[in-house]
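Action item from last meeting closed. Structure (412 res):
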């Protein structure tokens, strides 16, 4: 079960996109002059190609308004736009025992740095090696002159993130997961977003699939993956949404986020009882987004900050992600918010109620779809997500705090 992936730019003539006989579907990223403006997935039903005429009709129907808006903006600002410059930036890659993934990301970043316009300051690249079992990542870092290597012996992603906060020299600190690859326009997207939003304290970006080669990857992306749309969105302290900002996943993904270093330090860094590793592999990004917004800061989602994520290839690994990252991690984060933000407690409880109702309805819907022989997400996976949520809400955060305290004592 494979979906072919295509990257098309409407600034060039559209052509037929060939499909292999083994392709069950296709995923298409659409750009306009390099700027990502749309993405879709569709089954191909044995077709030998995606025809240019069909692509043209789909793009015209789905993306017409965005294309027109971008063209109008470009016309109105022609000759008046100030050149975008990069802020003082540290890019942190927190990793553990995955040098092949890290090398792929470093190569993409170094290529972008090499093509920065004259006068642009090059970012610092910080490689945080988290409790490694071997010397592979340290050896890799020696091959890249632009990379500064830092060791964090305490296992856990948020331990590594906080090591990056302490070590960074840039005014801004970007966190990229080691299993992403940045788009060629990632740095220029940041420069444009920073120029347009000088008051922002954080940016998040679009995350699309790097590949769709397996059933697990396709299921994850069909359910939405890490995508947050193609409109730039400014998030502030005030919103008309009653559950805001509890559903912090709407702000973006921790795999691709950039935050002012001084703001991070003022907030006390990342909560080390979230994103701890295998025990609670999630919630850390949601927590920092929530605290940014509750602190009165502006967070901007910018789709031009595009990265491609290596989704889990095996169904067993995806099941663990649903249960622990999406279920346990989310509810541990929510349990912390209930404890630390009494002013929002009623709305946070409403969010917890909505989450359980929404996910229970989804589980029942997919049980029915399976019974009818229709395409479905495995119910065991959805049930695992619900069970993870129960465990997280019933003491998961407190248990994680005790584990983290033990880790701190061990490495004191």
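Sequence:
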């Amino acid at each position: 079960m494979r979906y072919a992936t295509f990257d098309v730019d409407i600034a060039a003539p559209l052509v037929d996109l060939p499909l292999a006989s083994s392709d069950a579907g296709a995923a298409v990223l659409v750009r306009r002059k390099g700027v990502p403006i749309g993405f879709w997935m569709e089954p191909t039903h044995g077709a030998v190609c995606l025809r240019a005429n069909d692509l043209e009709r789909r793009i015209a129907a789905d993306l017409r308004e965005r294309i027109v808006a971008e063209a109008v903006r470009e016309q109105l600002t022609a000759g008046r736009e100030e050149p975008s410059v990069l802020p003082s930036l540290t890019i942190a890659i927190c990793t553990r025992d995955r040098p092949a993934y890290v090398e792929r990301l470093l190569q993409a970043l170094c290529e972008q740095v090499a093509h920065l316009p004259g006068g642009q300051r090059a970012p610092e690249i910080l490689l945080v090696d988290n409790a490694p079992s071997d010397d592979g990542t340290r050896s890799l870092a020696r091959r890249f002159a632009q990379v500064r290597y830092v060791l964090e012996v305490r296992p856990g992603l948020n331990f590594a993130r906080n090591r990056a906060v302490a070590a960074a020299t840039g005014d801004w600190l970007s966190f990229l997961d080691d299993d992403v690859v940045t788009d060629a326009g990632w740095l220029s997207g940041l420069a444009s977003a920073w120029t347009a939003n000088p008051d922002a304290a954080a940016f998040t970006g679009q995350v699309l699939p790097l590949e769709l080669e397996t059933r697990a990857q396709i299921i994850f992306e069909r359910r939405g993956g890490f995508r947050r749309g193609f409109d730039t969105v400014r998030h502030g302290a005030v919103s008309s949404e009653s559950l805001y900002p509890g559903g912090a996943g709407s702000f973006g993904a921790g795999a691709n986020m950039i935050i002012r270093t001084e703001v991070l330090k003022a907030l006390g860094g990342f909560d080390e009882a979230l994103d701890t590793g295998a025990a609670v592999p999630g919630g850390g990004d949601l927590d920092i987004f929530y605290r940014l917004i509750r602190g009165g800061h502006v967070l901007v989602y910018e789709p031009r900050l595009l990265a491609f994520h290596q989704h889990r290839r095996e169904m067993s690994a995806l099941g663990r992600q649903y249960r622990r990252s999406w279920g346990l991690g989310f509810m541990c984060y929510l349990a912390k918010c209930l404890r630390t933000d009494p002013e929002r407690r009623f709305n946070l409880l409403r969010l917890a109620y909505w989450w359980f109702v929404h996910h229970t309805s989804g589980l029942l819907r997919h049980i029915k779809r399976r019974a009818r022989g229709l395409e479905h997400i495995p119910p065991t996976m959805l049930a695992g997500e619900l069970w993870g949520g129960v465990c997280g809400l019933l003491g998961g955060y407190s248990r994680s705090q005790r584990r983290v305290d033990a880790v701190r004592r061990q490495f004191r």
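Note appended to the action item: The longest strand covers residues 299-309.
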